[in-house]
Design goal:
This protein has 603 residues and is mostly beta strands. 8% of the residues lie in helices and 42% in strands.
Length: 603
């Protein structure tokens, strides 16, 4: 009898634990299922979670908390509190934890999420919004702002003469979630002001930073990495408003308020990285520079003039390394030396060894197929396809691209699926890089060789050049200008369906006239754009001003812009205003940002 009672107690405890005890697990909620609450939820027909909507704030590293309850309705009309019998979860598990209806927030970000209580066969939800707030007096960038700086901004008297003019970021820019860093830049006000409040706000974030850094043209504040993380994680897929207010420290009775700027944060990170040509640097730095997107460390020289000199081993120190192209997977690079019609090679990116002996072949522009087994080149107007497998036919011509009606082709780009090449047919017999009247063609590999070419942007006198396939193969991005294809100040960004149609100018991305927007290239992945479907990004070099940092110097720098295919399909401008890639050296001329899905040796 004593043994039977002992077994019965164990069984009762086991049933009690299964029906009402706490469950374990992660994912921002209770984790395990409470099934039907040990029978207590039998006959439940509906539940109501309270409060139905709640706004909480986390600031100063202190977590916000909230208790939720659930009232259940059962067959026959009976009501009961079933809070402890339900499984709890958060739609966005990154916003904190919830168990037994008790929510505890994280302290490093904000956001909105559904709170779900699953109670037997039914469930109910509530909306939770967590707002991240931060107030900080900056000591970075040379700021000596007083510790009581926030108290200087309490006046309600607005003086327009003190208003800063926000010049960067550009209003309406859309940046990837993992951009990681950005400068806020403003021009000096007309009136005297020496203390500034930089505010970044949305329904889920409020970051205020106080600085007194002031340069000749205005002020600059660099968003700290932790602030960017909070901003991006709180507002991914949404828009942040940036405002700068200004006062005179000695007399803060009046303040100036800038016109706000809107900055949208993409839902996704951008993966992959770029290899770009940096000129006018030191010999050990001039050449191909690479950077993994989202990395907060400085970009690294990959293949510089020093590398080129070592390859030739002829005592010279002027072997320029310039025009380059990569296989989509980033394992191989085609590169030219010493400018037009110079020698060329194919490199193994991992160790920079030559897979194709220098001086064996030459070209001016090249593109590799996705797996790096073939390369299409332009030289003297001919488009040749080479084997680069390192096998028996390595370096040999194995095909070519048809040029309808004769003439000359240049600027080839291979599609991400390997089935098509886009290129430019020159309008005159100029060099591969300097010509007029270019038309954009696409040549398909439907029969095993690239011999079916179609003009998708025939020239009507203008020059169309530097075509580039989008990663999904649906669009061709290109330059359009009047006059030459080489270093043309009036070059603009255009796009067309890869099957042809009416070209669309990327007005927002192109910006003001005479910006010299050149070498447009797509990032290698398709992003999400919420209910609008896809989102793409593109990079290009431009000689436009960069806020107050580069003004009137026409220094080529790499810029990036978002592209909404749904707008392009509708015939509207699909581009957003661009943003400057923040890892660049502003003292060098930066061109030809070629993308790969990974940076070999870093990823």
């Amino acid at each position: 009898m004593r043994l039977m009672r002992h077994v019965g107690c164990l069984m009762s405890l086991a049933l009690l634990a299964a029906g009402c005890g706490p469950s374990s697990g992660g994912g921002g909620g209770d984790g395990g299922s409470k099934a039907d609450g040990g029978g207590a939820l039998s006959g439940i027909t509906a539940v109501v979670v309270a409060p139905a909507s709640v706004m909480l704030t986390t600031t100063g590293g202190v977590a916000a908390t909230q208790a939720f309850t659930v009232m259940g309705t059962f067959t026959g009309g009976r009501s009961a509190d079933v809070t402890a019998l339900c499984d709890w979860s958060l739609g966005d598990a990154g916003l904190g934890t919830i168990a037994g209806g008790h929510y505890t927030s994280v302290t490093d970000r904000g956001g909105s999420t559904l709170v779900t209580a699953a109670c037997g066969a039914v469930s109910g939800t509530a909306m939770l919004t967590l707002r991240y707030e931060s107030v900080r007096v900056s000591t970075s960038g040379g700021s000596t702002a007083p510790a009581d700086a926030p108290t200087k901004f309490t006046s309600t008297t607005v003086d327009p003469s003190l208003a800063p003019l926000l010049v960067y970021p550009l209003d309406g820019a859309l940046v990837p979630k993992n951009l990681g860093q950005m400068e806020i830049q403003w021009r000096k006000s007309v009136g005297p002001a020496d203390l500034f409040e930089v505010a970044l706000t949305s329904p889920t974030v409020s970051i205020k930073v106080y600085t007194n850094v002031l340069r000749a043209l205005g002020g600059v504040y660099s968003i700290e990495p932790a602030e960017w993380s909070a901003l991006a994680n709180s507002t991914a897929g949404d828009t942040v408003t940036i405002t700068v207010r200004a006062v005179l420290t000695a007399d803060p009775s009046k303040l100036g308020v800038s016109t706000p700027v809107r900055l949208s944060i993409g839902k996704d990170v951008v993966n992959g990285g770029i290899y770009y040509w940096s000129a006018t640097g030191a010999t050990s730095q001039e050449g191909i520079i690479r950077h993994r997107f989202g990395d907060l460390t400085p970009p690294a020289p990959f293949y510089t003039k020093d590398d080129g000199n070592a390859l030739f081993n002829d005592g010279r120190n002027d072997h320029c390394v310039a025009c380059h192209a990569l296989s989509r997977d980033g394992t191989k690079m085609a590169i030219t030396y010493n400018g037009g019609d110079g020698p060329a090679s194919v490199l193994n990116v991992m160790d920079k060894t030559a897979l194709l002996a220098v001086n064996r072949v030459a070209w001016n522009f090249a593109s590799l197929n996705p797996d790096g087994t073939r390369m299409v080149t332009a030289k003297g107007g001919a488009l040749r396809i080479y084997d680069i497998t390192a096998g028996p036919t390595n370096g040999q011509v194995v095909g070519g691209v048809e040029i309808p009606g004769g003439g000359q082709g240049t600027h080839p780009d291979w599609s991400a699926d390997g089935h098509a090449i886009t290129w430019t047919k020159k309008g005159n017999a100029g060099s591969d890089w300097d010509y007029t009247g270019g038309s954009i063609y696409v040549t398909n590999d439907s029969t095993g060789s690239f011999n079916t070419s179609t003009a998708i942007v025939p020239s009507a006198g203008e020059n169309n050049y530097y075509p580039s396939f989008s990663p999904d193969g649906e669009w061709v991005l290109f330059n359009r200008a009047t006059g030459t294809s080489y270093n043309n100040g009036n070059a603009e960004l255009w796009v067309v369906k890869s099957s042809g149609g009416m070209p669309i100018k990327l007005t927002a991305a192109s910006g003001a006239a005479n910006s010299a927007n050149s070498w447009p290239r797509w990032s290698p992945f398709v992003q999400r754009n919420g209910p609008n479907g896809k989102l793409l990004y593109l990079t290009f070099s431009s000689q436009r001003d960069y806020g107050i940092e580069l003004v009137g110097v026409r220094k080529p720098q790499i810029w990036m812009a978002a592209f909404d295919p749904s707008l392009a399909t509708a015939g509207s401008d699909p581009s957003s205003v661009p943003f400057w890639l923040p890892f660049q050296d502003m003292t060098t001329n930066n061109h030809i940002a070629q993308w790969a899905t990974q940076i070999i040796g870093i990823d």
